[in-house]
Specification:
Elements: H1 2-15, H2 18-45, H3 48-76, H4 78-101, H5 106-118, H6 123-137, H7 142-173, H8 176-196, H9 230-259, H10 265-283, H11 293-308, H12 317-345, H13 351-380, H14 382-402, H15 427-432
């Protein structure tokens, strides 16, 4: 326990105590916008179909343009990209609220939803990139880098627990528009603070050059970019399947609680899974580096399969709580390991892009499963949706078993952003952030 605390202290010494707090508050709007937009449009239009169209457009915008924002952050630095995205996202979210309240037609409302999703500032993936860069510049060992991934994964999990909960509370006490209005304010304020934080200097971008200056590596003598190793694509597939598990569980939990006559319990059940997932994710910082990522990937996906199987036979509220809560213990380890594998395998110059691709795969899997499993739950009951979760877990385990995972870091180049950065962040400079 003491060793874990000391490891996280080293992480905070690199980032400063303000950065994790700011990045968490800037992540909340992402978790609030999807659920909040669905509730708002459903209430103002009276149509679940319209709400689904707008919510789907929002997810599609994020999936398609998320990697583009990551690429821009790699090329031009996080500061300018996040400042622009946060401003556009705040305005788009406010426009979505206004459009829903004024009963705008479905097509223009969906277009605004797509812009809202496309402008999500990707604080989660970018915060991972920034924290890893700080750790690498300071010469930190693998235990600290692992703790960075564990902390960032936990912040993601907590935000996706509290985000929908805040939306539900606002809808209960006032109106869903209040929740989306708060999301617009959060992204405008804390997205800007995150962009302007001094640690943004370590992610100042990699200008395009043929050699030197930290430019992305190219094939020797070919002038073409080096393709990421196969493990990166396998991890993206695994994350898409993880998203499918999330979507299937959401649909199945909702269907079962409706059947049991307690629909309000759906959000509470799902939140319980998220709380356990976050707690287990934070504890991963205690794992020694000798327990490699390949083993962690296989154990996490195997646990997801074993722990999700009882969902097929769950037909009561308390058994549902028990099964879903225990299942949460497998989710964060898989997510944290997947992002750690991505960081280890890709070039530093493309880390933001790769992290954004990974996050987009997760969102795409979840959105697709929600649409599919909603229909399956209607036709075959909750077990129809839960079967998708179990099937996705089996495919995740298969990927983990058949994918060749490099035993060591694929790219050993230091994090050296382009010439616009005045000086790299060393351990000494990193510690200076602790007072910010």
């Amino acid at each position: 326990m003491v060793g874990t605390v000391n490891t996280y202290r080293r992480v905070i010494a690199l980032t400063g105590p303000l950065l994790p707090l700011v990045s968490f508050l800037a992540r909340l709007p992402v978790a609030m916008s999807q659920f909040g937009s669905f509730l708002l449009v459903a209430q103002t239009s009276g149509s679940l179909a319209t709400a689904g169209v707008v919510g789907g457009a929002l997810s599609l915008g994020q999936v398609v343009f998320g990697p583009v924002l990551g690429w821009l952050a790699d090329r031009h630095g996080q500061r300018s990209v996040v400042l622009t995205a946060a401003a556009v996202n705040a305005v788009a979210t406010a426009a979505l609220v206004a459009g829903a309240l004024t009963h705008l037609a479905t097509v223009p409302l969906a277009a605004i939803g797509a812009l809202t999703g496309a402008s999500v500032p990707l604080i989660g993936p970018l915060a991972r990139t920034r924290s890893v860069a700080l750790a690498r510049r300071a010469g930190s060992d693998e235990s600290v880098v692992g703790a960075v991934h564990a902390l960032e994964g936990t912040l993601d999990e907590v935000s996706f627990v509290f985000g929908p909960a805040l939306v539900g509370l606002a809808a209960l006490l006032a109106h869903p528009a209040v929740a989306l209005g708060a999301a617009a304010g959060l992204v405008a304020v804390f997205g800007t603070v995150y962009a302007l934080h001094p640690t943004a200097a370590v992610t100042a971008g990699y200008p395009r050059t043929e050699s030197g200056g930290g430019a992305p590596a190219r094939g020797r003598g070919t002038g073409r970019r080096v393709r990421p190793p196969g493990v990166v694509y396998a991890v993206r597939g695994s994350l898409a399947l993880q998203g499918a598990m999330f979507g299937a569980c959401q649909a199945g939990i909702t269907a079962l609680t409706i059947r049991l006559g307690v629909p309000d319990q759906a959000a509470v059940v799902y939140s319980a899974m998220g709380v356990v997932s976050a707690a287990v994710g934070l504890s991963l910082g205690a794992l020694p580096a000798r327990i490699g990522l390949r083993l962690r990937w296989r154990v996490a996906t195997g646990a997801a399969l074993v722990l999700s199987a009882p969902l097929l036979f769950t037909d009561g509220l308390w058994p549902l709580y028990a099964v879903v809560t225990v299942l949460g213990a497998a989710y964060a380890p898989h997510l944290i390991t997947a992002f750690a594998l991505t960081e280890r395998a890709v070039e530093p110059a493309r880390l933001s892009t790769s992290m954004a691709f990974a996050a987009s795969c997760l969102v795409a899997g979840q959105a697709t499963a929600l649409v599919l499993c909603g229909r399956l739950a209607e036709w075959y009951g909750p077990a129809g949706a839960f079967a998708v979760a179990v099937g996705a877990a089996a495919l995740c385990l298969t990927l983990a078993l058949v994918t060749r995972v490099p035993a060591a870091r694929t790219h050993t180049a230091a994090f050296v952003p382009g010439p616009r950065t005045a000086s790299p962040v060393s351990g000494e400079n990193g510690a200076a952030y602790a007072g910010r």
